[in-house]
Amino acid sequence: MTAKKIARRDIADLLNEWSREFGVFVPSRDEGVAKWARWGGGDAGFLEWYRNTVVPPKALFFPPLEEMFSFQKDGDGYHVGQPPPTEDRWLVFGIRPCDARALAVLALTFKDGYQDPYYLARRKNGVLVGLGCTRPYESCFCTSLGISPTDAANVDLMLTDIGDDFLVEAVTDKGKELLSKTSLVQAATGADEARAEEARDAAGARVTRKVDSQGAHEKLRAGFEDKDFWERVSAKCISCGICTFLCPTCYCFDISDELVKKQGARFRSWDSCAFPLYTKMPVENPRREKWRRLRQKVCHKYEFYPDSFDVIACTGCGRCIRLCPVNWDITRVLSSLPAQEQLRLER
Amino acid sequence: MALSDISHRPKFLKEGNVYLPHPAVIEKIVSETIDTKTFHFNFKDEKLREEFTFQSGQFCLLSVLGIGEATFCISSSPTRRDHLECSIKEVGRLTRALHRLGVGAEIGFRGPYGNSFPLDFLKGKNLVFVGGGIGLAPLRSLIWNVIDNRQEYGRIDIIYGARTPADLCFTYDLEAWQQDKTVNMVTTVDRGDEAWKGRVGLVPVVLEEVVPSPDNSVAIVCGPPIMIRFTFPALEKLGFSPEQMLTTLEKRMKCGIGKCGRCNIGNIYVCRDGPVFSYAEISSFISSEY
Amino acid sequence: MAPTDCLPMKNGIMEQRLRREAKALLEQGKVSCVIGFEAGSLKFTTTPLITGDKDDTQRLVISPFMANNLSVFLTGVKGRVAIVAKGCDSRSIVSLIQDNKVVREDVVIIGVPCSGVIDLTKVEGLVGKDRDEIADITRDGDKVLITVNGDKRECPVQEVLFDNCLACEMPTPQEYDILLGEPTAAAGDKEKAKSREKINSLETMKPDERWAFWRNEFSRCIRCYACRNVCPACFCERCFVEETEPPWVLPIPRWQDSLMFQVVRNLHVAGRCTDCGECERACPVGIPLRSLAREMYDIVGELFSYRAGMDKEAPPLLACYEPTDVEDFIR
User: Which residues of chain A neighbour C130 with C-beta distances below 8 Å?
Assistant: First the structure.
């Protein structure tokens, strides 16, 4: 379909228009920390500074804390309430290709077998408007995972920054519908499309961090028992949850209950395979040692998830590298995996 | 592409919010050992009571609302359906809360989840059950299931042990199986006491004394990790192949449905692809993860 | 605060000496492991280097960006180790010795006379650019030169050092086995005052304002526990948040629970915290945790005339008591 464009100065009006129909979420800053927040009108100033948020947009679909249901104690029994309602119709504006792809990776788990009602309801009611990158971070490595900083995939609408304007493409029917309802877009010219191509190439060229993501699977499988390697690379890890929590494809969660007098609720909250007590059982803890946990984390992303779903559970967003307090770098670890001479073990 | 196929699961499992527990009421509590109790319970909802089905080896998640939820295998047999049974050892906050409940108290039930013992594979074969401690709980469901359909199976050997006589679970079942002439029941303890007149010896050692034949046989092993680690090699010595050895894996679980990631080992989730596995399926990671 | 000679050169000399000493210690079997810094994988970043291989010592660096408090790794390594320590880090080591978590004879402390660590967030704020878009940051005596797109900008170093560096009472380790260079001077009163700006503004707030402030800050907390895990004073094998009987604090990121966690954590490390600032630096969502930590540090100083990690023979402050202790603050 013919590409459209919208003037940069009209983005705020577009967001206001959409706010009449959707709960709109945009990048914003809280004490200098980039995060997702509800659009409250005003100007779209975030367009000037936004590169990517600290907490990924997965937090809008799979929040750090979610009430699953509430309950009331009544004698020997309970009354269980319905889960709290989620936003009816909502829209995320400015999601980056790495994060959009990550949502698709996450969805594979949440809809496999038993359907996870919470994630899927939010996803169903959500519209994604992607925004291609112009300034990838030095920690970004999306191009090594088969995507580019301007991919128009896994979103409903895709915007590409061409200076005074954004090129707008509808990717899904939802996106087409949205575009048809606004008068703020005009037809894009051939020159606009050419500029968009240039912008895409430029953004891609700025991603300098590279890793052999496809080759990792083999090496990880063959080197699973290489305790020396894993002990060496995990020595400086402090077993916090930053990498896993800020990873847009990580989904481990914990379930906790609370009961105060007779009112209570069951919550789910983010959990991390990096935490020492994650796999603890009464009898033993299979991953008591840090190197086992780090091995699990890397193998899960680059070996096990691909075994199950044919996709690497990493989109190269680089948050884990950027925000790790000890600068543990998964690209360095993957690059230093010993090459395996022997043939792949037949299973 | 490993998508879990739940199309064969019963309707009540596929509808509604999979995380919402169904209310069930405790009908009877049997004290097995000093820290283990078996809870007999039934659903509050009549329709669910009728519709509910499960298979031996599957597990459920029991909630004490406000305290939490944990995974337990269903230790009653699907052939004896007037109530459900779970055997629970007191090891932490949730199990302590469960142990403090009395008859009439309400708990939450989610399940049954997981795979089950492959009855089609077991039919017509000789079965060697090897259990330790509370590991008898998942075996028990299968044992009664098999005994209730006795003619479909070959020889039945049950080798069960516990640390001391006071740690033996399901003593009433052990007696019944002892009386059953179609079953070879061998009970042992690691350490006897003054009253104990039976066998004394570790389960893997007793196994080598009983010498079950591997011909047309399947061994089903459940117990503490240390017992399993010694039993598999003992069975191998007796001539059992890795495909002929089944077990249930225990791993910390939370959601029970393959979402929260906790029970992930390799590309499997114990809750989704297990807990029943053959040794052949898990030998690649059992040594490094267990 | 800073010596007037060129820091990169001074660092270079210290670095050469560090590499020599570390290699010798490993070669002679005096230690089985060296804990130091090497160049990070991002600009203006260092990363811990923990190695038993003598050839790896060539990668050791001394850098104006070496922020980590490496003593956090001491409770995880076996045998005798050599560890690179700035002043605040050495105080943490002393504090661990006081708590019997580390045996003095098992550590070879390689002391680094510190001139302060550069806070990249402050540099970013000053030039309005993210760190990976800044070409160069160089310290030159008491000035810092920041290069962006070919333009050089100069600023006094006090504007870009971490707040806790501005308040530093012991930049040069007093407990050490090897000291890599000449001692550096402690912070002056002007810097100390600047380091307390955030805390002072909190103290002047009315209680509801302050409550609203912390409520907003902790609503960003995701309970990653980076603050706890970078802290050398948090050495409990099982943290109180991991207890279920009773569940002191729920492991859920509700601002009330997260605030509670941080407050209790500060209470638990009172008397051990050396204001290294790592908790605040590690926090991915920018919660000003040091404001709580430093306030506790100052309260400990006021109430008990005690500063953590100054005397390895001293009993740990809140773990011991004397019959003559004052009790009138306990009601």
Answer: 51, 137
pLDDT at A340 over 70: no
Residue C249 C-alpha, separation from nearest chain B C-alpha, in angstroms: 13
The pLDDT score that the predictor gives to residue A1 is 53
Residue A225: which of B254, B264, B288 has the nearest Cβ?
B288
Q: C136, C160, C184: which is the final residue of a domain?
A: C160
Domain co-membership, C138 together with C271 = no
Residues C94 and C203 placed together within one structural domain of the fold: yes
Question: Residues C277, C137: one domain?
Answer: no
**Cβ pair B254, B275 in contact under 8 A:** no
Residues C127 and C231 reside in one and the same domain: no
pTM above 0.80, yes or no: yes
pLDDT of C331 reads 64
Q: Domains in chain B, start-ordered, CATH in brackets? A: 11-113 (2.40.30.10), 119-289 (3.40.50.80)
Residue of B nearest to C246 (CA): B93
Tokens of A299: 């193998």
Among chain C residues, CA nearest to A67? C252
Give the pLDDT confidence of A183-211 residue by residue, as tens digits: 999 999 999 999 999 999 999 999 999 99
Instruction: Collect all residues of chain A within an 8 Å Cβ-Cβ radius of residue C49.
Output: 236
Nearest CA in chain B to C245: B93
Beta strands across the sheet bearing C151-156: C136-140, C143-148, C151-156
Confidence (pLDDT) at A144? 96
Q: Is C272 on the interface with A (CB under 8 A)?
A: no
Per-residue pLDDT tens over the stretch B132-185: 999 999 999 999 999 999 999 999 999 999 999 999 999 999 999 999 999 999
Domain region containing C105: 7-119+161-319
Q: pLDDT digit string (tens) for C239-259?
A: 999 999 999 999 999 999 999
Asked if C52 and C200 sit in the same domain, the reply is yes
Q: Minimal Cα distance from C287: which residue of A?
A: A31
Quick check: B100 contacting C, CB < 8 Å? no
Q: Which of C238, C245, C248, C250 to mutate to test the interface with B (most CBs of B within 10 A)?
A: C245
Report long-range pairs for C251-255 (Cβ below 8 Å, ≥24 apart).
C251/A254, C251/A256, C251/A269, C251/C223, C252/A65, C252/A256, C252/A267, C252/A269, C252/C223, C253/A64, C253/A65, C253/A269, C253/A270, C253/C221, C253/C222, C253/C223, C254/A65, C255/C215, C255/C218, C255/C219, C255/C221
DSSP C60: B
Q: CB of A115 within 8 Å of any CB in chain B?
A: yes
**Over chain C, what is the mean pLDDT?**
93
Contact A241/C225, CB-based, under 8 Å?
yes
What is the helix (H) or strand (E) element at residue C106, kind and residue range?
A: none
Given this model, what pLDDT does residue B285 score?
Answer: 66
Based on the domain organization, do C86 and C169 belong to the same domain?
Answer: yes
Same structural domain, C181 and C65: yes
**Phi, psi (5° rounding) for residue C90?**
-65, -30
Contact B96 C247 (CB under 8 A): no
Minimal-distance CA residue of chain C relative to B94: C244
Measured between CB atoms, which of C224, C230, C286 is closest to A245?
C224
Question: Cβ–Cβ of C252/A332 closer than 8 Å?
Answer: no
Residue C141: which CATH number?
A: 3.10.450
Q: What is the pLDDT of residues A82-122, one digit of tens each?
A: 888 887 899 999 999 999 999 999 999 999 989 999 999 99
User: For chain C, which ranges sit under pLDDT 70?
Assistant: 1-9, 331
Give this complex's ipTM: 0.94
Contact B105, B43 (CB under 8 A): no
CA B5 distance to own-chain centroid: 23
The kind and range of the H/E element at A258 are strand A253-260
DSSP state of C310: S
Cβ-Cβ contacts under 8 Å, B250 against chain A: 281, 283
| Chains in contact with A via at least 3 Cβ–Cβ pairs below 8 Å | B, C
